[in-house]
Write a structure and sequence with these properties.
- The complex is a heterodimer.
- By secondary structure, chain A is α+β, with helices and mostly antiparallel strands.
- Chain A contains 3 helices and 4 strands; from the N terminus they run E-E-E-H-E-H-H.
- In chain A, the strands form 2 sheets. Chain A has a two-stranded antiparallel sheet with strand order 1-4. A two-stranded antiparallel sheet of chain A has the order 2-3.
- Chain A starts with a strand and ends in a 6-residue tail after the last helix.
- Chain B is mainly α.
- Helices cover about 65% and strands about 0% of the residues of chain B.
- Chain B contains 16 helices and no strands.
- Chain B starts with a helix and ends in an 8-residue tail after the last helix.
- The chains are: A alpha+beta, B mainly alpha.
- The interface between A and B is medium-sized, with 34 and 33 residues.
Chain lengths: ~100, ~290
């Protein structure tokens, strides 16, 4: 894990610690695949640095490799026993895709 | 024990529940009258300076797009419209009744408030996405949908923590654990408060039916918005509703909303900034 300025974000970097807003809410969860163009948005939120996985652990630029399983496991646990119809499966897939899991 | 007896027993313990300020009832009546002028509302709010100051602070936050540029209530109504200001007044008056920083042993109260802010913010975005006119009502509904849970937690903390523990152990919703343990839920408590405080019918419907939106009659669309927003906020893991699971979406509500996957992803994308900006509501008593 290393700390970098948001201006140094490169496509495919993996977030190692959650980005937390001023109210304590998680803006981006652990394991999310970062994109270079996120720096503007993060700066707008007043965030100047973040923690990413160190180089030997970084994912390929394609972003298709699933990031850390921490967040996915937590979402899966939350939806456990509740994926009983296609609507719930859609919601579950959208939440995961939003957090950087391309295949939901 | 019958449900009504249990509810009566809980309500008996809520004797210290504060009432809403008299001025709020007066303002709500004024805002319901299409002939009321912005000046009349401004004058009515000015009779409660504490509330007025909070409202001015909120309407000047980044959330409403005119930071630092609104100097009076009348000005706020002219710029933001009656509907927005009415909902800010309602929310301010209700949140002012609670110590938002108060915690209880064994439960993260601020986490519950954060979940409420997230639900309100996402509800506002859903409303915008489907072209529902009551965006502000959706925000307030999301923010206050768990009012019964808040009151249960703050006024009967031991009983509430018992419910939270059961929910965690059995992987249940708070609602399901409440039914199991007491036969009375936060929905029943919330409905009682909505009646006691004479809250608007649409907000009362949200509080009462957010777990069963298709039963909300004329308010079914608004309640469906809150119902889905609650699920999405849980999925995003923002704050804590008290349990560690999600309600199964009501299929009638899902069909009524008619959101595509792309639309849901857009709502989630916008939600982070919306939640960040809406969090100003949690500082109104500071």
């Amino acid at each position: 894990m290393k700390k970098i300025p948001v201006t140094d974000i490169q496509d495919g970097m993996i977030l190692a610690q959650p980005v937390v807003g001023s109210a304590g809410n998680v803006l981006i969860g652990i394991g999310a695949v970062l994109r270079a163009n996120m720096s503007t948005r993060l700066t707008g939120w007043g965030i100047t640095t973040l923690f990413v996985e160190s180089s030997e652990e970084e994912a390929p630029v394609t972003g298709n490799t699933p990031p850390s399983h921490n967040y996915k496991e937590s979402v899966d646990a939350c939806f456990q026993g509740r994926l009983v119809n296609s609507a719930m499966r859609t919601i579950h897939r959208c939440v995961l895709q939003h957090r950087g899991y391309p295949n939901g | 024990m019958a449900k009504t007896d249990k509810l009566a027993q809980i309500i008996e313990h809520l004797g210290e529940l504060p009432t809403l300020p008299v001025v709020i009832q007066k303002i709500n009546a004024l805002l319901s009258n299409p002939r009321t002028t912005a000046t009349e509302v401004g004058q009515a709010i000015a009779t409660d300076q504490a509330i007025a100051a909070k409202i001015i602070r909120l309407v000047n936050s980044a959330l409403y797009g005119f930071p630092g540029r609104i100097s009076t209530i009348t000005h706020a109504i002219v710029i933001l419209g009656f509907s927005t200001v009415k909902n800010v007044i309602l929310t301010t008056s209700i949140l002012s009744r609670f110590d938002l920083k108060k915690n209880i042993q064994g439960f993260d109260m601020m986490g519950l408030w954060k979940h409420s802010i997230a639900t309100g913010s996402i509800a506002r975005l859903i409303a915008q996405e489907i072209g529902f006119r009551g965006k502000e009502e959706a925000f307030v509904g999301g923010l206050l949908h768990d009012l019964g849970k808040v009151v249960h937690a703050l006024y009967l903390p031991d009983s509430f923590v018992q419910v939270v523990t059961a929910a965690h152990e059995k992987h249940l919703l708070i609602y399901e654990a409440e039914l199991d343990l007491h036969g009375v839920t936060h929905v029943d408590i919330g409905a009682w408060i909505a009646d006691k405080w004479n809250l608007p019918n649409d907000l009362a419907a949200v509080i009462k039916f957010h777990h069963s939106p298709s039963k909300a009659g004329p308010h079914a669309l608004l309640v469906s918005i809150i119902h889905l927003a609650d699920i999405l906020a849980r999925g995003l893991d923002i704050g804590t509703p008290g349990d560690k699971t999600v309600p199964v979406v009501d299929l009638e509500a899902w069909t009524m909303l008619g959101l595509t996957e792309a639309q849901i992803l857009r709502i989630l994308e916008l939600s982070e900034k919306e939640i960040e900006q809406s969090s100003v509501f949690l500082t109104i008593n500071d």
